[in-house]
Amino acid sequence: MKKLPLPILFTLFLMMLPSICLSQPTLKVGTLIPYTGRWGDSGRECARGMLDAAKWINQREGISGKKLEIILIDDTSQTAETIAAYRKLNEADRILVLYIYSIETTHALTPHFHHDRIPTFVSSLPSQFANASKYPYIFSINPTPLDLAKIAMNFISDKSGIKVRKPKVIFIGSPDYFGRHFLDETKEYAKKLGIDIGPDIWISDLYSSGDKVSKLIPPLLSTIAAYNPDFAYLCLTSKEATTLLQEVMKTDIKTKWICHMRAFDENLTPFNGVFGAQPISPFGEDVPGMAGIMEAHQKWHPYDSHTLSYVEGWATAQVISRALIKSLPEQGLSREKVRFVLEGFKDLVTGGLTPPLTITSNDHRPSVESRIFIIREGKLSRHTGFISIGR
Questions:
Q1: Model's pTM, two decimal places?
Q2: For 384, which of 97, 217, 343, 372 could close a Cys bridge (C-beta 3.0–4.6 Å)?
């Protein structure tokens, strides 16, 4: 057989390069995560966790030999900028999966990503979005705020230690959708458990500083002291929770505090005795899934500190990568295939970073379980095992 001259072989190789590259496409995940504003602190940590997880995956086998690419866009919460960012991810980048951190942006973009049939992970999944018949493209790795609040009520009912009367509980949060959309159903649930519910306390602009905060806090503390609740359920950001608790500790208020997962992270370590309904494993906890995180941490940024939000970002990227791996062998790159794979997850284990995840075509809630943590000696410590409210 006659051999082809080297120049011709080289030319043929160059002609083949596009098809070689296209046969190993980058699998793109678009993200809209705030770096500033109310959710900026936790958003930055979550984004870093996702980027590190993708780097970790790509340095190993990747996604069936393909590279996982996280396309990160700062979510400014400005409507025009948000829509433009979404259109770029959908039309130019042709992402397979979208990730949105804030509830506000999720609400704004829900009609868009459902129209475009993009499987979309959200950091916080309001309970109505878990209805797969109405919202077939929304997913999460976290229980809904409603389920977390119910878990907290279960904990209070079982562990309050109050025998001669009903435990008294108040809810403290922001007056926006995030702070109150789950409250009515939670209160009805709490009353059935034998819990008395006090007046709601709404807080806005607590992430501001200076005189504005100093004027906001005293009336809040007066309301708390007047009702004298046994427990307060706190649904704020961790920075806002820190600001409030700093002022509370200056008073003689004896209320016990139990926080929603967004309020409870490593920023609260100065406040011993504060509880948190937290499904995510704290950074550095001794669970199997933390091994990769700690190895990456030591290798790439050993002098940095991280929070629960970093672990959440890492776990989210890992769950998305598993869905992509299972989507490839049969039908190739397909958004619809990714959705069907996600709806087939049953008891998916993340090495203890989250509860086992089960998603069905009827119920997109990944879990109805969470542990209760407590701040003890300046650390986030497990206070209970997983508490489940059932589906």
A1: 0.90
A2: 372
